[in-house]
Design goal:
CATH class of the largest domain in chain A: Alpha Beta
Shape of chain A: elongated
Helix content of chain A: 40-55%
Largest interface: A-B, 104 and 104 residues
Distance between the termini of chain A: 44 Å
Number of strands of chain A: 19
Strand content of chain A: 15-25%
Structural class of chain A: alpha/beta
Largest sheet of chain A: 7 strands, antiparallel
Radius of gyration of chain A: 26 Å
CATH superfamily of the largest domain in chain A: nicotinate phosphoribosyltransferase
Oligomer: homodimer
Number of domains of chain A: 2
Chain lengths: ~450, ~450
């Protein structure tokens, strides 16, 4: 699969029409999010690596073309698809950086058919990964370094693709590992995990299960204590940990009930038993709000596994992402649809201090000395600019941007995003293009 | 990729422990949803086909094993993984059928390590596809045959996997097609699509764009009329449709603003222009609630494209799915965790009339003459029972079950699901197992 059919039918219809009319002018498309969900003060950019790999390999296989002929594409169109490769340029905000609404995450400049055909995949991947990275970043921000984070989302992430993306973006935003073994392998992340209730149930008693697991994994023993009665489970765990002398490398895991209260009772019992080094791990439907609560109330929880509610956020399940034509054949264009207007021209985002905010400018504007341009050239003429970078580069950018971000933009409930104003030149161009429509 | 690493690390840890202890007793795991979201009166079962293909092919490649050795698995464990295939049985509710909370969607019986290792993938796929099929079914139910439905979700579905699943489940619940070309090819579904705003913008005027598109696609012309001013767009569309004589096979598409009001104005203008056969197509963030509103208010919309808000439901973004051990080595087991108790034993769901409701029974209970057993044997000894079935079989089951379902269970806001009671034998076994715990 080289990607030619990973698209909506209308992209192919439009491309065929462009070929037929020899319309090969350069189009600039801008990918951005129109509006942040009310609970989001920022987005963490992710997905660019997948976009570049996709564009580098983009073509139609003979199988793809055979299928297209069965749904009505004519010989000339098929031949044009057969010849087609992605030959354009891409400017993008590097992965891990924080942006707000209306700031382009990436811009594609290419002959219009090429730029149009790749829209669907680009939106799909950038939206997925940016959504997940943002969800995970909120957990990271809520945990504030006080509680360690592990990605447990595989089983209920919406598909394998989302599970893989979660493992990746969790590493970008500073999780310590993932339960997803395939994800860990792909991205060089530490795999992590404990035991399931079924393991406890497969033995005749909880004690027997704990002893067996601890014996088999003396270096990394985490005992799940809530299969039957949680505090009785803690007693069994203490017994096994003491007997096998695992006090400095064992943990217990809580997965149900009032996690904060159970963690406090468990901590007391472990300390009383002379096991202050035994760590407490929690899981079970946690999200950023509960992590914040655990931190604020000082619950003695060392680390948590998060999953379902981060792979699909309940208060921001979708992101209003779009991929809009802003220039064709040297002519800046805009769209005036009700509530869906777009601004013309290839753009740049100029970042000032966290108080002065960002400026949405035209790409060729010269930034002032204090402003940092967020969009970088990442592909030229269909080839990547520079080497593939390690995931740690994105993590470093994320950590730096998170530190830069004002506290009010990190609020989990009613954040106030960094402000964005339009440059004078962009405002002027927008007016000109609007007045020129239909003329 | 044969699937061995598509799992959470703890599954591998537990499997290695079972191997080390020669624990090869048959485990029965039950996959079900603990609780329906408040707005859900039923679930549409989907994902079984992927589960069966995965189980048939399940093994560890040498690459998988090499990776596992780098993260601490010993030679004996690696050898056991190398030998492992899925040799178990699966009972399942066929795809397209409707179920409620606590009814197993499938049950796996296999040596415990095998049954455990496949948990993560099974949950991931069944949860994804069932969630999406249920979302799409709500649109189908709301549209009530009055408005045609097309899947437009590819661009904002959470990943390629989710986009592919959407194309598939939309076909199961009676959509007429999908914009997803790869999905259409895979599942033999009709691909569909129109044009984007960018197409209109690439031309010097809307009229020019419409004329070009209509000329290139005289058989299936759908003109997007809202790039600039919607009613002016309708006038341009009328002009082109009349000039090219496409009145019996053209459509217009509305993608922004007050769709119902614009559809009414557009319908009037089209009718006045002598174009009563030109269809009106709508899109733009629609969900089941808006479709219901369009139907109830009689908006003259013939078909809609739905996407973002169905690929990720805003009021039910996650499903509380689990895969729980219910029997090991002939011994029924249960779990007593706070709010997360499970019922012991391999099960059957006996479906009565829509008023008498369903009964959750043990698998070996003999159903009464009026009751239909929902779970069917679909895999024996690692091999599929019967042939791969066409998607139309699932669609037929869905249509029949939707007809069977009482109206109060189809309510989009406060549905009342079909009732489920426990059989006397299951109630008795649950009591016995609870009392036996720890003895």
């Amino acid at each position: 699969m080289a990607g030619g059919l990973l698209t909506d039918l209308y992209e192919l219809n439009m491309a065929a029409s462009y070929f037929r009319r020899d319309m090969a002018g350069e189009a600039v498309f801008s990918l951005f999010v129109r509006e942040l969900p009310p609970t989001r003060g920022f987005l963490v950019v992710a997905g660019l690596e997948h976009v570049l790999s996709f564009l580098e390999a983009f073509d139609f296989t003979e199988d793809d073309l055979a299928y297209l002929s069965t749904i009505g594409f004519d010989g000339d169109s098929l031949e044009a698809f057969r010849q087609l490769r992605f030959t354009g340029d891409v400017w993008a905000v590097p992965e891990g950086r924080l942006v707000v609404a209306n700031e382009p995450l990436l811009e594609v400049s290419a002959p219009i058919a090429e730029a149009q055909l790749v829209e669907t995949y680009l939106l799909n991947q950038v939206t997925l990964q940016t959504t997940l990275a943002t969800n995970a970043a909120r957990c990271r921000s809520a945990a504030g370094g006080r509680i360690g984070l592990l990605d447990f989302s595989f089983r209920r992430a919406p598909g394998l693709d989302a599970a893989t993306a979660m493992a990746r973006v969790c590493a970008i935003v500073g999780f310590s590992g993932t339960s997803n073994v395939d994800g860990a392998r792909r991205f060089g992340v530490t795999p992590g995990g404990t035991m399931a209730h079924s393991y406890v149930q497969a033995f005749r008693s909880e004690e027997e299960a704990f002893a067996a697991f601890a014996e088999d994994r003396p270096g990394q023993t985490t005992l799940l204590v809530d299969t039957y009665d949680t505090m009785a489970g803690v007693e069994s765990a203490i017994e096994v940990i003491q007997r096998l002398g695992l006090g400095d490398r064992a943990s217990i895991r809580l997965d149900s009930g009032d996690l904060a209260a159970l963690a406090r009772s468990s901590r007391r019992r472990l300390d009383d038993a002379g096991l202050p080094q035994v760590r407490i791990f929690a899981s079970g439907g946690l999200d950023e709000f509960e992590i914040e609560h655990l931190v604020q109330t000082g619950a003695p929880i060392d680390a948590v596994g998060i999953g379902t509610r981060v792979a699909a956020s309940s208060e921001a399940p979708t992101l209003d992402s779009v991929y809009k034509l802003v220039s064709y054949d040297g002519r800046p264009v805009s769209k005036l649809s009700a509530d869906k207007a777009t601004l013309p021209g290839a753009k740049q985002v100029l970042r000032g201090s966290s108080t002065s905010g960002d400026v949405l400018a035209l790409r060729d504007e010269v930034p002032g000395p204090e402003a940092e341009p967020l969009l970088q050239p990442v592909m030229k003429g269909g080839s990547r600019v520079g080497e593939r970078e390690p995931l740690s580069a994105a993590r470093d950018r994320f950590e730096a941007d998170l530190e830069w971000l004002p506290a009010r933009a990190r609020d989990l409930r009613r954040p106030e995003p960094v402000s964005l104003r339009l440059s004078d030149r962009l405002t002027q161009l927008d007016l000109e293009v609007r007045h020129g429509v239909g003329h």
